[in-house]
Each structure stands twice: as structure tokens, then as C-alpha cells.
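Please, structure for the following, as C-alpha cells.
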Amino acid sequence: MSRKRKETPLSQRAVPDVVRDKARPPLAIVLGSPAEVVHCLRFLGGMEAICYQMDLYQAERLQAELAEQQTTATVITAADLWDLPTVFQTVLYLPARAGERELKIDMVEQAFHILRPYGTLMVWSPYEADPFFANLLKKIFGRVHTPHLGSETVLWCRREGDRPRRRHEVTFQARIASGPSCRFLSRPGVFSYGRFDNGARALVETMTVHPGDRVVDLGCGCGTNGVFAAQQAGATGHIAFVDSNVRAVVLAEINARNNGVADFQTVASSRSEGLSEGSFDVVLANPPYYANYAIARLFLVRSRQLLKPEGRFYLVTKQVQEIADLMMETFENVEAIMHRGYTILSNTPFAS
């Protein structure tokens, strides 16, 4: 029974009374699923709140959930938590179960800087016992309170004094074949933090990009695929970096400039909007696989719309059958090649 309870999402649990006891406006709710955020807001009885998200897709889902539940809050999507336009008396952080460790550290450290003096940070953990957050909060805030709540874990602490801002980021280098080495800045919360993903490497090693091509790096992350495509497209080419994660778009712009991409644009969009349809020669896609393949389907449909009639589409996956079926609904021809343990699907034959 205990094991089953621990797997229950926060949205289906009673919000601990300590959350209501400690919460004071203005309130920021950091991340969390749309259902979890709305659950907390309803428990807090309409308290003035700003809900922070890093991803436009999640932010739009949250706004839809708020409207459906007739709950009022302001949703802001930003690259960093400390980009929010105010300081707060209370911050409530809803970390994901099995979420990225570095992102959790980053959010706690940034939360310190958006609190008023003696403001309160609360972390409602999805785990019954959470030594990770207890140790982290003690390190950042100096003192952490872990009240005994039976089967729930809410940790809280107050901001006292000041501390320098610290960005969590890792720079890594990568190269393709005999091409020049590139340096990429990465930050937590963006796909493939601190490394060049093997699937992305497989994709760019099999793509065909000609000088002067207009290329879309769809779901760009920190921009590795688009930067390597730019090496082949040359000075007359154009690269569009597109992602729903606004932190990813910021990083893609930094990395494109630092690696000498001559002509590029960055677009933050949950639906790959903001680009001229029928104007691109190549689309590169490495979609996330959640929401019942909704994102992969969106990538496919938008890619078909963005490409010129003779344009080339490349998608990397390990879930071949499901994605191939979706591709055949969108493109007349589907080719596949195995590389580095991944399957790259394309609407055109691969170069021999």
C-alpha cells in the first residue's frame, strides 16, 4: 500500500496544511504539472499568484487547466526564475518525481533571489523522505524546517541575508567527422544537459545539407543540430532554431553566435509557429516522446508545412514503429537508416 501511495501524483493528494499556514502573497508557484499547480491554487483559496514555467507547451496546458477549473493566476514563461517581474513573500516549488537533479538545485538557488527578506520557500516533495532537498535547502538558506507530516514531505526555510547569483551551466565540445570543433553552453532543464546527445549525433551524421540551404532545427535544445547544419549550409544558408523551452532558445542563440553561424533566427513556440511556410529545404527533428506522441505528430505536420515541395525531413528515434506510422500519414515516402543504435527516418533517400 505504501508503495502505491508514493507513486500518487501531488495533484491527487491532500495539500498539507503547512502550505496554507506558511503561504503569504505575493506567491510564486515554481514548475509542477498543470494539475498540481491548479490543485494547490484551489486549496489556497484564490491567493494572488504567479506561476512560473520554463516551457510554453506546459504553460499553455496550465492556462487551459486554470480556465477549465475557473481558477485565476498569472502564468509566466521565462528562461530563468529570477526573470520574474517581482519579488515574493512566498515561493512554492513543486519538483518533479525523478526530475533532473541539476534543475532542482538551480531552481532552489534562483528561488532565494526572488524572495523578499525573510520570505519563505516551501518545497512539496513527491517523496515521503527527501534528504536531497533537506541538505540542499540547508546549504542555500542555512536552516531548513522539516515538520513531521506523516506520509507527506514539505520542507520550508526563510531567506536571511544575501548570496551571489550562481548560474548552473556546463560547456561541452563536439565535432562531426573532420569538421571544426564547436563549443556549446548548456543549462539544466534543457535537453541533453552537458553533453552532445547520441541521437542528435546520429541525426547530423546522416543528414544531407547543401550550401545555401534553409534549415529548421525543430526542438533545438541548446542548438547543436542547427550549428552543425550551418557548417554545411555555409555563409549563404539560414538556420531557424525552434523550441517550446524558452531557456533552450536563449542557449541556441548564444551558441549560434559563439560558433559563427552567419544567418539564423530563434523562435520560442509551442506549435512551431512564426516561420514562413513552404520556404525551407531541410527540417531536423529529435522530438520528446510524451503526451501520447502529440509532440512528434505536431513536428511531422508542421515540418510538412514548412518544407518546400522537394524539401528533406530527418527525424531520429528509438521508437521506430510508432513514429514510422505517423510519418507515413504525413509523407508519401519514408526511408530509414540505422546509425549509432538509433533509427533516422526521412522522406528522401539517404546519401550513399
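The chain has eleven helices and 15 strands. Confidence is low (pLDDT under 50) at residues 1-5.
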